[in-house]
Specification:
With about 625 residues, the chain is α/β, with parallel strands linked by helices. About 35% of the residues lie in helices and about 15% in strands. The longest helix has 17 residues. The protein starts with 10 loop residues before the first strand and ends with a helix.
Length: about 625
């Protein structure tokens, strides 16, 4: 194969978010993976009895990886009434939440996504909520919209105001990787500028556990033992993962953070295998090789495979055999590539399994560390790893490839015969810290729709300060993401500091110690008869009103603003002519009690919004 990798077809992952068992975000997930934590728990008898199951459940798997608080939802944030929210599949609700976290993580506002071609591809399967809704005494008018799977993608498009392709993909366990494959194709073909890709699985109804247990697919002991000689089935897991994709060249041009690069992908079907659920060595091998051809790189450059790895006595040996045959087309090396599976930690998350594997691989690439696959005590004797290119990841270790870029493959195979494979390459993140010296202090802004939400954001920010994500990022990068890359809401707090100062105040940074203000966050454009976002997240004033409130602003700034905190409030009642630039120049020329404070505020805050491209 040609080892030359063209960037023209590369797709950048520029944002991600997730919730999995015992992990409300990817930092929690990474911590759990490094600690080798098993997040599988036994389900209570009470939860099963609520569904009136009329048969013995003694020999069925009653273990699962459960996502916390998936029954909670901030309906008003998404402009959804409580009645409609009550009748929505919780998968729709949790998707909306993590989609929002994802675009905030990327630093891309809804306004940006809505002005270009942004598509949505969601992998989802199962009908647990349908079964629950059928037991209700009365059918609500919102019941149908709340249960159709197409709405999982469509609600995202509707809320963000997107006009691109919006589809839900159902291919069982392969759903989310196929969603990513279709999104990749859409961006390459010029049909999309951005693409939101997600996978979700909230499996909670006993029918699934009973049916799969009767099919001898599930481990009644509650452990997914991938590649182990005692492997006897998977354990159900819940989860949701979302990533935002963009063409690599555009991501570089826009200076977006890049988590990883999608080099290639492929999808096929098993054709006429023995049964509809039987895996095929030949077809798995073919889809893997096709993904590498699409990526224009060789399998020999790959040093990690995130296997489908369901922990079944039949599926695991077949998967390793298919991988071996595919790799041996290009290399005869033995033991050169690690292999593992996240399913041993969180269970089999079904339609979210592929995206779970993607996020795990991204986290390993970011940290250049391979995490162990738990519950692997004695290797399945059917799998002779010594004669393959693969090494089971039985312990945490550093990840390197002789100064070459790290490359990983991710597999997902649906029980209906659909196979998918994706190739991810690391992005060499050369952080530009030049502006950290020129502009030592930067504005940091936190906003929310409600006061309780802002206080929650302050606590989340405080926790973020203790993570490697904060340590490894440049001050400019973090500031830019908070100020320009997030939607601006009416409840706000902020400060101007350098990274050292931020870390020094971490312990004191609590809602009680923050100057919080409520600012009207939009105005009415009477000509267009619709609400328009203000141009300044701090001033919250449109251009024609900025000049009018100069005296008010001057008084507020000199009287209430502390050295590092911003605390401003402006009434907005009518439009007045005047130019923002004239306003700013007059502001800079004015004399306040603290000229240095004014100068700092102008250079570090106002310029941030009005001349953002030059500033950042």
């Amino acid at each position: 194969m040609n080892n030359h990798s063209s960037k023209n077809n590369d797709i950048a992952i520029i944002g991600m978010a997730c919730r999995f068992p015992d992990a409300n975000n990817y930092d929690d997930l990474w911590k759990n993976l490094c600690e080798g934590k098993c997040s599988i728990k036994k389900t209570s008898d009470e939860s099963w009895n609520a569904y009136n199951i009329h048969e013995s459940t003694e020999d069925f798997c009653k273990y699962s990886g459960i996502v916390d608080d998936y029954d909670k939802f901030d309906a008003s944030f998404f402009n959804i009434s409580p009645r409609e929210a009550k009748n929505m599949d919780p998968q729709q609700r949790i998707l909306l939440e993590e989609m929002w976290h994802c675009i905030e993580n990327a630093g891309i506002t809804p306004a940006v996504l809505s002005k270009v071609k942004t598509s949505v591809y969601v992998g989802a399967t199962g009908n647990d909520y349908d079964l629950v809704s059928l037991t209700q005494d009365k059918v609500d008018s919102y019941s149908s919209l709340g249960s159709f799977s197409c709405m999982m993608a469509n609600r995202i498009s509707h809320f963000l105001g997107l006009s691109g392709v919006s589809v839900t993909v159902d291919a069982a366990c392969a759903s989310s990787l196929i969603a990513l494959h279709q999104a990749k194709q859409s961006i390459r073909n010029g049909e999309s500028d951005y693409s939101i890709v997600a996978g979700v699985c909230l499996a909670y109804h006993p029918w699934r556990y009973i049916a799969f247990s009767k099919s001898h697919m599930m481990d009644i002991d509650g452990k997914c033992k991938v590649f182990d000689e005692n492997a006897n089935g998977f354990v159900q897991g819940q989860g949701v993962g979302v990533v935002l994709l963009e063409k690599y060249d555009n991501a570089i041009k826009q200076k977006h953070k890049i988590w990883g690069i999608v080099k290639g992908s492929a999808v096929n079907h098993n054709n006429s295998s023995i049964t509809v659920t039987s895996p095929s060595v030949i077809k798995q091998k073919e889809v893997i090789l096709e993904a590498y051809r699409d990526a224009k790189i060789s399998p020999e450059n790959t040093t990690y495979i995130e296997a489908h790895g369901t922990g079944t006595s039949l599926g695991d040996p077949i998967e390793i055999e298919a991988l071996t045959q595919a790799f041996e087309e290009d290399t005869d090396e033995k033991g050169s590539c690690y292999v593992g599976s996240i399913k041993s930690n969180i269970g089999h998350t079904g339609s979210a399994a592929g995206i779970a594997g993607i996020i795990k691989v991204i986290l390993m690439l970011q940290n250049r560390k391979i995490v162990k696959t738990i519950n692997l005590n004695s290797v399945n004797p059917i799998i002779n790893f010594c004669e393959t290119p693969f090494i089971p990841a039985t312990s945490n270790c550093d990840w390197s490839n002789n100064d070459k870029k790290l490359v990983a493959g991710i597999s997902s195979f649906g029980f209906g015969g659909v196979n998918s494979h994706v190739i991810i390459e690391e992005f060499e993140n050369n952080i530009d810290r030049s502006d950290d010296c020129i502009h030592d202090k930067f504005p940091f802004v936190l906003t929310a729709k409600t006061l309780p939400s802002l206080k929650g954001n302050i606590e989340k920010w405080k926790n973020f300060l203790g993570t490697s994500s904060f340590t490894n990022a440049s001050t400019k990068q973090i500031s830019r993401g908070l100020t320009l890359g997030r939607e601006s809401f009416c409840y706000r707090t902020g400060f101007i500091m350098n990274k050292k100062e931020v870390l020094e105040i971490r312990k004191q940074f609590t809602p009680a110690n923050c100057a919080i203000t409520r600012i009207a966050g939009c105005y009415v454009d009477h000509e267009k008869n619709k609400k328009m976002e203000s141009k300044s997240a701090f001033l919250s004033l449109p251009e024609e009103e900025a000049f009018k409130y100069f005296d008010i602003f001057k008084k507020t700034l000199s009287g209430t603003m502390g050295k590092n905190m911003l605390n401003m409030e402006f009434p907005i009642d009518q439009e007045m002519p005047g130019g923002t630039q004239e306003f700013l120049m007059k502001l800079k020329a004015s004399k306040l009690e603290d000229d240095m404070l004014l100068e700092e505020f102008y250079d570090k805050v106002i310029a941030t919004y009005e001349y953002a491209e030059n500033y950042y």
